[in-house]
Known about the structure:
- By secondary structure, this protein is an alpha+beta fold.
- It folds into two domains: 10-328, Penicillin V Acylase, Chain A, CATH 3.60.60; 391-460.
- Helices cover 32% and strands 17% of the residues.
- It has twelve helices and 17 strands.
- The protein has helices at 107-112, 122-129, 136-150, 213-219, 231-235, 240-257, 282-289, 306-309, 364-367, 378-391, 393-421, 427-460; strands at 10-14, 24-31, 42-44, 53-55, 62-64, 72-74, 88-90, 96-102, 156-161, 166-171, 177-181, 187-190, 207-209, 273-274, 320-328, 338-343, 353-356.
- The strands form four sheets. A seven-stranded antiparallel β-sheet has the order 14-12-1-2-15-16-17.
- The longest helix is centred in the C-terminal third of the chain and has 34 residues, at 427-460.
- It starts with 9 loop residues before the first strand and ends in a 14-residue tail after the last helix.
Amino acid sequence: MRKHTHMACTSIMVGKKAAMDGVNYIARNEDNFVANWPKRFFVQQSVSRRNETYTSPYNKLSVKLPESGYRYTSSPDANQDEGWYEEDGINEKNVGMSATESVVANEKVLAYDPLIEDGVAEDSIVTLVLPYIDSARGGVEYLGNLISKYGSTESNGVEFFDEDEIWYMELATGHHWVAIRIPDDCYAVAANQMGIEEIDFNDPKNYMWSDGIQEFVEKYNLNPDESHWNFRKIFGTSTMQDRHYNTPRVWYGQKVLNPSSEQNPESSELPFLRKPEKKIAIEDIQYILASHFNETRFDPLGSGSQEDKKRYRAISLSRTANSHILQLRDAKKVSAVGIEWKAFGIPSFTPYVPFFTNATDIDGSYSFVPEKLDLKSAYWLYETLSMVVESHYREFADINLDYQKELATWARRKVATIDKETVNMSGSELTDYLTVQNHKIAKYFNDATKDHLADLITRGTELSELTFKMDPDL
């Protein structure tokens, strides 16, 4: 089976009753195995009367595309030689998805339903699904039908949401999968390991599954439990790698949102669904995605022992190519429903920029991604900032946090202003207005970031080790 570079992510889903503002969120850090993996962010336009076949550059999967497709936001790789990897977006029907959270199935289930070399892989999932779905549940069904027809190349977790529901789907083997509706009052954190637990096959309103999955498990004696049908225990893994690479990230996300719960970061029994101890704000989601075991001895940038600092894999990495938070707000209260909060660079050091998805464009700085550094490119601008901050972390951390806080405050204020200005807008008037606002938002953040970068570099000139002060007594 071919291996690709997109195999290391962290996902968060927050139900509307668990959220401070009463709306649904899905979010993820798209991580790779190399630090420099440029991404673009733009709007794919709607299509009609199309006669086209999609062929994956990654594994040559070939699929005849529908004649019509919705407009949607997209975050593909800048270099698409290995595949498109559109990763995340919200379409014009206010349905969003993020794909994928790479997971691992165990050898027992793969023995009887192996992965399919030229099946549906991460590089193709958003491309083949998001333009054609009208609901989160419909997204699960649509992808499930593709898996039934073409098979799955990888074990993956996929997030879907609309204004009403959030669904999390885990593709385990070549043809078998399950999906769970995230309860409105719960959140979930997923980190490269099967997360979904008990499946109630008598509750199709809240669970979905591949045809024949129960018979498959029974036929090959794959269930280790006498009285439970736990997807994680049947299809997932529990290895030393899980306990050092995966479960500590879930532990930390739950530690932030349920601070009174005492849990072991290496536990294989961390619950998938949790009710938070307090309502979750978008800043809480941002904090988790930008975290590196902050205020624990496991922080790679902290003061713990060298062994502890390297013990667990953190959520935010130099290899995070694209961190995104997708938000769908109440259409009864606001006209601009969908917002995609985007962070390039290392999210520990860069801001989340709000872009309205009911638009025909994001901004030229997000689609311009040359091979070499150019500060006109948002990707390279935030990569540069990340490198500068980390190079003098102790000196720059507080200044950088102030910069992030100021921009986060401005972003909330800007969104509120736009909500007031668009209260009576709809149709093309609304779309055109939000497109203009996307450009203004991008410019504000880009200018503020260049100013911050200039300030840090100016300060950094005084931090050189090649400094010598003459002793006045000499």
